[in-house]
Hints:
Blueprint (H helix, E strand, L loop, with lengths): L7 E7 L4 E9 L2 E10 L6 H14 L6 E6 L5 E7 L4 H15 L7 E10 L5 E9 L1 H12 L3 E7 H10 L2 H4 L7 E6 L4 E7 L2 E8 L8 H20 L7 E6 L5 H11 L2 E4 L10 H8 L9 H40 L4 H48 L5 E7 L3 E8 L2 H13 L3 E14 L2 E12 L8
Parallel strand pairs: 1-4, 4-8, 9-12, 12-13
Antiparallel strand pairs: 1-2, 2-3, 5-7, 6-7, 9-10, 10-11, 14-15, 15-17, 16-17
Helix pairs in contact: 1-3, 2-11, 4-8
Amino acid sequence: MAAFKDGAKIAFEMREKAIKILRVSLKNGKPEKQEMAVLGLSSEDPQKAGAEIRSFIKKNDIKTKDAVLVIPRQSVTTKVVGLPSEDPRELDDMAAFQAVRQIPYPKEEIISGIIPIETTPEGFTKAMLVICHKDMVERPAAILKESGLILSEVTLSTYGLFNWFANNKDLSASDKAAPVVVVDCDAANTDIAVISNGKLIYTRGLTFGVNDAGLYYDKLLDELQKTLSAFEKEYPGLKPKAAVFTGITSGMRDFGKMFTVATGMTAEFAEVQHEDASFASLAGAVLGRGNVDLMPPGMKRDRSSHARKKEKLFSGVLMLAVAALLFLLLLNRIRFEEKSLSEIEEELKTITPSVQALESMKTATDIVESQADKSSEALESLNEFYRITPSSIKLSLYKYDGSKVEVKGSAETLSEVFRFVKIVENSKYFRNAEVKYAAKKRTGEREFVDFEIFCSISKDRETVK
């Protein structure tokens, strides 16, 4: 196989006994060429699985390094919630705060993302909260690292399925009149998405697939009827009229007739993509129409750090190139003036003691400045905190331990707390600001939100005067 041209992407979905791989070359934002493979690998042994993927990559001459990881719908929990904001950054913070209440895991073991559905005139956002355990990302990430790939994005299979549908113009026009049910029939599982007016508004994952032999179609019809019933309770004014089936659909023509008789909906079948597995969600994931972000916070920071290092490296190379150009110009001038190298060496010998003296003075100055900075850091951080605190926020505790700050206080609403966290995060003095606790309380007739915020002192801060 030949390597892809620029714009190639590679996507993975890892299950218990198999890993699906899709590589796509994109031209003008559209897939130009797709190649699919299913590897019979176990994700329980990252080194072995990584070595086999590395061998597969080498054998097929895959040059792409950035990889998109697709998390199966059956591995996550979803819940539709109302959040009191429209700001994307505030929504992410609120979603993370809500996720802890939904599943019985510590905050450090949870990964969450949101899929916005609609906003209300009152400024609320109705969104689908997506939650999973960190192992569902960290274990596949370890395999990709062993294979030499770079994990650039983590998304949900259902959102990939939504992207696949939205980018298929022959299908996606049908969701304007009424919601469309999109069903991805895979070997060991089934993914269901309900799409309306270009939005993913409902989803469900089934833990059985086409390999369940003759029982699959009866079970699928039963679960689809349950899904439609649950959806219509959630959205009373919406009633799907059509369903699109994709994946392993070669034996589903008779099922389509049975589905239409049972539900009154039309059934359409997309072209079969692979005889052993469905690749619709992977194809949609690489198209990336604002995929739901399930990258763990630590990996996000590493990714940002890696990007900053690349920028610094590029800047360094550029500066070296400029320096080399200036040096060449200097040499030309020296040659033009017929100034000998021996004279230059003498001049350097003359200025070297002065340079060394200046370096010694700079070292001493840096030491004095660093000590002065440490001695005043506590007062400066306290001054900065009170400077940026809005009048609507009442602080009751400020605790400083040399590298971290703990603040307690109260606010009128929960959204004010998250806006305050955003203000703290934007200060050059602080970083990694997060809400550790926030709860509504009542004193007499007054209701307020009691909160606790932690943040770190920024190493790159500029002294606040």
